[in-house]
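>> received
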Amino acid sequence: VQLQESGPGLVKPSQILSLTCTVSGGSITTNYYYWSWIRQSPGKGLEWIGDINYSGSTSYSPSLKIRTSISRDTSKNQFTLQLNSVTPEDTAVYYCNAVLASVYDYWGQGTQVTVSS
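>> returned
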């Protein structure tokens, strides 16, 4: 499975951050896969943002839930992240990730997103 993030590298404060993960080598509807968004801010560890699973159910980090939406397009084999009302604290490298049964773990290369006016 290969994952590739895409989206704008610069977002203005208060706007919406939107990223897409394009999946190849496997289907996002394959049983028991969980498709996540994870970020790493400068000088900090990895932060799980949320996920969408093989059946389309979503889960979100409690600290980001109010601003986050994850959806999918099965026809394009993609899943997307929307993060609303961004601030400079949302500046980070954003990764998409796929996990199957805690055995298989795939990562995109990551994409830098900077929040700045």
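>> The CA atoms of residues 9 and 93 lie 10 Å apart.
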